[in-house]
Fold each of these.
Amino acid sequence: MIRHHKGGVVYYTFPHLGWGVKHAIFTRLGGLSHSPFDGLNVGHLVGDKDKAVEANHRIIYETLALNAREVVTARQVHSHSVAVVGPEDKGRIVPATDGLVTETPGLTLMLRFADCLPILLYDPQKQVIGLGHAGWRGTVGLLAQRLAETMREEFGCHLPQVRAGLGPAIGPCCYSVGEEVREAVQAVLPDSSGAVVERADGVYLDLWEANRWQLNQLGIQRIEVGKICTACNTAEFFSHRAEGERTGRFAVLMLLQGE
Ligand SMILES: [Zn+2]
């Protein structure tokens, strides 16, 4: 990933996705929210002041020179539901969904994160994008694969030509899980996926490897993994695990540039 600075705002991009897709993984740096939501929190439902959250949304759209009216987002519920969106969805919050797919240039997909994994998919031939949000539930629900399969089924994407970016998330250094989660993961993913990491002090989940494996299984090879652990890096990212319930959400945005 490349780290960008614009004013006080810091965000990351995946260079291998190419010029056809504009995208950004924002950090918490550069916004107006006060502690514990400092500063660029885009979550409306976390207890932050609405005015600050709205100002933060304006900051991210200005940073990328985007029109706020072109944005579609989702009420994220740790599901494996994927929605196909188009021009009629501008300004909409899609209910109970953790994946968005579109072929509409300029339509800006946005999701919010605080430890869960951002999954960015781009087909440069068909000009289709997908954006997903996966914690352990989404990973066990194969959200990454559903996102890619939706691109194939709805728009005829040939998956080996799809490029993927897996963004900052809670890493295997910090994501300790209980027996229930371990069993759920191992029921779906083989040991060779690298999803479960056992150490002397417990069992850890590797969201990057678990989701990379899922995409690899569908023939997607060009995957860049931005291995920044959100829980280790709370100076830049919000982390539900490291900071508790009262923390913010950082934004990930993605849109097709069009002609
Ligand atoms: Zn960590």
Note: The first strand starts at residue 2 and ends at 6.
Amino acid sequence: MIKCVGCGSKLERIAGPTHRYMLSSPACFAKYDEVLAHEYSDPALMRTHRLTVDAFAIQHPGDGTTRQAIQSVGLHLARLGIQVNHLRRLEEANNIMLSLGQYKAELVFLAPPAEFTMTVADVAKFAGTPEHVDAVKAWARSAWADWSQHHDYIIGWAEHHIAA
Ligand SMILES: [Zn+2]
């Protein structure tokens, strides 16, 4: 077994690809891939898909040395917070993230939580089942909650630019 450097999931040690800056174990990335495969094949899962991408991104923040990873965490955290807290209509959340992208250079490294309550490994077992959507929602909500230390910063940052 190997502990994922990002989310802390304990999975089998396998050989395989990982993301360039969302650092993870190969097994964790494979679980993410499994969830994504089901979402890509079902248009009804598109909303859920955004939560999956956001949750995985903020649980694999890298070590703070990659600018792209810092920006990715900030933007996905902002979009997830907007969705989880229903600050805007869901359809708007994606557009908001795209427009926030122009301010991404302002984002600073946010120290991630020491532990995550749920990981993609908890969700992958429900991939493609009727529980898929609920599993992703629970994961996304918990991932957002785990980042509570930075809620005020990231929502403040997002709202500042949305309002401007
Ligand atoms: Zn992981």
Note: The chain has one domain: 2-163.
